[in-house]
Amino acid sequence: MSVDIRIDPILCRGHAICALFFADGVDLDQWGFGKVVLAVAETPKDVRRAFRAATACPNRALVVQERAAATTEPVT
Amino acid sequence: MTTLPWLTIPEPAVTPDPDVLLGLAGFGERAVAGFGERAVAGPAIAVAPAPTDPHIGGVGDPGTLMLAGPPAGVGGGGLDGHLATWGALPGVDGSGVRALLRSSALDGRGGGGFPLIRKVETARFAGGVPVLIVNASESEPASHKDRTLCAERPHLVLDGAALVATALGVDEVVVHLHRSPESAASTLESAIAERRRRGVPDPRWRLSAGPDRYVAGESSAVASYVDGGQARPLFTTFPLAVIGPSGRPTVVSNAETVAQLAVLARTGPGAWAARGEPSSPGPRLVTLTGAVNRRGRVVEVSGQATIGDILVADGQANPPAAVLVGGYAGTWILGTEAWQTPFTREALAAVDAGPGCGLIGLLPHSACALVETARLVRYLAGESAGQCGTCVAGLPRLADACEALASGDLRKRGVRRMVTIGDIVLGSGACGHPDAIVKLIRSMLSVFEDDVVGHMAGHPCRGSDHPPVFTVPEVELAIGRDGLREWA
Fold it and tell me: What is the pLDDT of residue B352?
């Protein structure tokens, strides 16, 4: 499984816990807000860390989604 | 049902790739020139006739397409005047309208330039009853095209909105405006009442009036407000046309875009598209601002008219110092270069600009671009919704830096620092607002390199006491102090 990783910049308050749990995937900018450096996690290790970081965020600002395949069947 | 030839173009037999359709292929891409909407290349144009000769004309000019016919003051704005100029709207079903959108490749005119057909198809395939919002709020303070259109040609906007509603299969349309004294709400209200009286087969109309703030006109902010939330941009993991704040697919389209649809349904997509060129089909509405003779005038531009042609139509004889294109958060182009540049998406892209909301601002030789940019950046920074960290932290610093540069207080290190902050801010917000500001600053630094060097060396500036060329509204509240009521 591969996942898309994004940070909701509206919810992010710069707790920096994501960068602690998932240092390879999230960087901090100069004001301490998270910046995603690994937009797509492929390896099981990275995916696990991404989910752990998302769960740990107090503001639920880290969005980890299963890689977007088309979820809806087109109606013909 | 009519038998107009262009209404018989069949829908493609092949179902489009859902990944591409739902906008997931361009996941994360963002148009920087305008707001939130994701810019993706439009579908190939089916009918691409040779462009017509350049023509520039205002309201009532017989050579224009949308603005031809008498102005609103002398009967052009009423339903009778509208029908005399345009005739009744041809009866088209949903697939007919979609065929029109597909073959004309009508691009969004709000700033993002996203083809309307992709929003419509995405919303249809996403499931659920779509919400259709026509965005006539026109947040750009210097732009007047949507206002002019709603005031002069309200029935074109409503006709077009009705067509998009047919294409989506919805029976309600929300027309969104700003609560401001200049908004065309009353004109639209009386136009809707007139249509109802005369029995025009229309969807249900709902007028919505949102807060009069810059980012409140961004598409997700509009969708949020119409759904009962605050008029502030949203963080979206899927395009609005897949799922909006209400949980239903939401199509937000600019007022000029739908008015263009009402026009091309009558003229046929071929004749309509011939007034532009393949990268930006059809005529476009342009607002002139800055040091022009008629500030705020809206003209219709067709053919490969260059920015020079448009300025000549305003009475300018020589290239200005520079031109600001696409909006207040737009791009600078040197006057001599702009003079030769056609006002089309392709030609503007070659100079790192875009048509945006169709604003052309003229900077005279006597004014200083750095002073002007500093004022614009300060205004735009104050118009942030104050939601994202980098916007709250970064934009005031960028505005400070621009002002320091303009007043000659910034040296090499300060400029380098400004560029670094811009790099951090770029792409980090929920909407395109901070990105557009960074792009404006970057274009200032590259286009006016000599002036920047001069200011850094402390040379006296030729335009420091020039009266403001690009005027900005007063921003009353600073970032972070906004009460919630202001966005409701």
Answer: 92
3-state DSSP call for residue B176? Answer: strand
Search chain B and give the residue with CA nearest A11. B388
Q: Tokens 């309509």 appear where?
A: B272
Q: What angle do CA B315, B319, B321 make, to 5 degrees?
A: 120
Length of chain B: 488
What DSSP assignment string belongs to B276-300? Answer: SBTTB-S-EEEEEEES-SSTT-EEE
Question: CA–CA separation, B258 vs A28, rounded Å?
Answer: 43
Alpha-carbon span B242 to B21, nearest angstrom: 10
Cβ of residue B126 closer than 8 Å to a chain A Cβ: yes
CA distance B341 to B354: 11
What angle, rounded to 10 degrees, do the helices at B433-447 and B369-382 form? 170
**A26 backbone dihedrals φ, ψ, rounded to 5°:** -125, 135
Continuous H helices in B87-215 = 94-104, 116-126, 145-152, 154-168, 185-197
Question: Distances in Å between the alpha carbon of B426 and those of A27, B232, B328, B442?
Answer: 15, 19, 17, 11
**What is the structure's pLDDT at B456?**
94
What is the distance between the alpha carbons of residues B143 and B299, in angstroms, rounded to a whole number?
A: 11
B15 touches chain A (CB under 8 A): yes
How distant, in Å, are the alpha carbons of A17, A54, B234 from that of B401? 31, 35, 28
pTM attached to this predicted model:
0.88
ipTM over 0.90: no
For chain A, what's the residue count? 76
Check A9 against B124: CB less than 8 A apart: no
Strands B322-325, B331-334: parallel, antiparallel or unpaired by DSSP?
antiparallel
For chain B, the farthest-separated pair of C-alpha atoms sits apart, in whole angstroms, at 70
Strands B250-254 and B131-135 come out as: parallel
Backbone angles phi, psi at B249, to 5 degrees: -60, 135
Q: Which residues, listed in sequence order, are joined to residue B115 by a DSSP beta bridge?
A: B107
Beta strands across the sheet bearing B172-178:
B204-210, B172-178, B131-135, B250-254
Determine, for residues A8 and B235 on separate chains, whether the beta-carbon distance falls below 8 Å. yes
Chains A & B: contacts with CB separation below 8 Å: 64
Burial of B291 (0-12, 13-18, 19+ CB in 10 A): buried
Which band of pLDDT confidence, cut at 50, 70 and 90, is reported for residue B20?
low
**Distance to chain B for A35, nearest Cα, Å:** 7
